[in-house]
């Protein structure tokens, strides 16, 4: 493998000579200063360094930088490193910041943090005094920047939670752990924190994809170290075991979609929630499966009230959609929440009952790409649907869920990791 050595050069040349002898690079880049007035630079020292290392024929370049301007040094070096990476994409790239001014060393280290796949070292040696290292005793000492970078990247991964992007956090944490797998200097506390962060993100990602059992199991493994996750672990179990609790959870899922500006997805979930409430009521209270209608369970008067004459006459095996599902549920329970919602005036819409307003929302939903249309829905569409859902949830969903022992307003999934993570 080709080795590229980037070394900052200052007044003392012995550490650079030792670095060259130790690494035997194929190409070298020396970061040097030019002479400025009576102030000497380090560029003229390079030929002597190469000769002393026995590498006079080594391919090398000089990057001339100001002595005490870390920002300018960083910008120049970063661009040069990018060029070297393009020229040698598979090479081993080693940055040695032993020599040079403090500004040069600072810029070198900043570039190492900003350049993926870089090794960082300095030449450590025996000190007989506080002034200098004894020449000839220098040895390359690796700086473990992988876990330093991991901690910085970890902060970015945690920020994904604000937008409920749990999958991105989980994937990023997994990648960091793989990078640290063979880094013996990475603290175990960092590894454990990343493992737990990845696991928690996986759990909430599974939850977001309606895999409540998986979420509950993963969260259970985290409780000994992160007891504040218990409320979510218990809620995931309730969602797994209770259809009414899953209905409540679906609304939180719709809210997450809207918060991420995925309005077609949010409205699709709200539509499904309305339909699901009707199906749940027919199944749990009346033993009617809308996917396989048993017409013997529906009286003639209920058929009339629900407007199902054509379906009944043909002995259709299913209902044709959401409205028929709700109207049948209303016909089976004329004083129930669904029936009252459909026939009563809709708040703020003079002359329009709940069924009429429901049909308005279905027209809106049908324009969605995820339904029957070709145009993406936007925030204004979601705001209209949200206003409708606030009434439907208050008048229908909440009382029905409460009567079934479910929590109608469960907490939203977290937008930041637990404080202990």
Automatic annotation (TrEMBL):
This is TIGR02710 family CRISPR-associated protein. InterPro entries: CRISPR-assoc_prot_Cas02710. Pfam families: Cas_Cas02710 (PF09670). Residues 402-421 are annotated as: Disordered. Residues 408-421 have a biased composition (Pro residues). It comes from Elioraea tepida. It comes from the Bacteria.
């Amino acid at each position: 493998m080709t080795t590229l050595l980037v070394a900052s050069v200052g007044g003392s040349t012995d550490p650079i000579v030792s670095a060259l002898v130790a690494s035997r690079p194929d190409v070298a880049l020396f970061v040097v200063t030019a002479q400025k007035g009576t102030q000497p630079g380090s560029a003229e020292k390079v030929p002597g360094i190469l000769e002393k290392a026995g590498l006079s024929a080594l391919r090398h370049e000089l990057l001339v930088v100001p002595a005490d301007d870390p920002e300018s040094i960083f910008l120049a070096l970063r661009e040069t490193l990018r060029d070297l990476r393009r020229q040698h994409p598979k090479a081993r790239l080693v940055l040695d910041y032993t020599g040079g001014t403090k500004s040069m060393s600072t810029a070198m280290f900043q570039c190492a943090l900003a350049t993926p796949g870089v090794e960082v070292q300095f030449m450590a040696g025996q000190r007989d005094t506080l002034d200098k290292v004894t020449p000839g005793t220098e040895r390359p000492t690796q700086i473990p920047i992988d876990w330093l970078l991991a901690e910085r990247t970890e902060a970015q991964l945690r920020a994904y939670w604000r937008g409920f992007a749990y999958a991105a956090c989980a994937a990023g944490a997994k990648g960091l752990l793989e990078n640290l797998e063979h880094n013996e200097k990475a603290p175990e506390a960092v590894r454990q924190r990343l493992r737990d962060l990845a696991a928690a993100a996986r759990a909430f990602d599974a939850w977001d994809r309606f895999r409540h059992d998986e979420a509950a199991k993963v969260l259970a493994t985290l409780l000994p170290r992160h007891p504040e996750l218990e409320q979510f672990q218990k809620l995931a179990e309730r969602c797994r075991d209770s259809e009414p609790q899953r209905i409540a959870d679906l609304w939180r899922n719709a809210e997450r979609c809207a918060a991420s500006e995925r309005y077609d997805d949010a409205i699709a979930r709200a539509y499904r929630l309305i339909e699901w409430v009707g199906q749940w009521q027919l199944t749990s209270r009346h033993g009617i499966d809308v996917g396989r209608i048993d017409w013997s369970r529906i009286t003639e008067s209920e058929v009339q009230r629900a407007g199902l004459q054509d379906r009944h006459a043909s002995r259709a095996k299913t209902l044709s959609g959401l409205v028929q599902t709700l109207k049948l549920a209303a016909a089976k329970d004329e004083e129930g929440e669904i029936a009252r919602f459909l026939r009563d005036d809709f708040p703020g819409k003079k002359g329009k009952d709940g069924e009429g307003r429901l049909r308005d929302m279905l027209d809106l939903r049908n324009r969605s790409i995820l339904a029957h249309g070709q145009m993406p829905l936007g925030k204004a569409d979601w705001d209209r649907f949200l206003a409708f859902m606030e009434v439907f949830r208050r008048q229908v969903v909440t009382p029905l869920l409460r009567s079934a022992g479910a929590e109608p307003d469960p907490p939203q999934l977290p937008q930041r990791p637990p404080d202990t993570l």
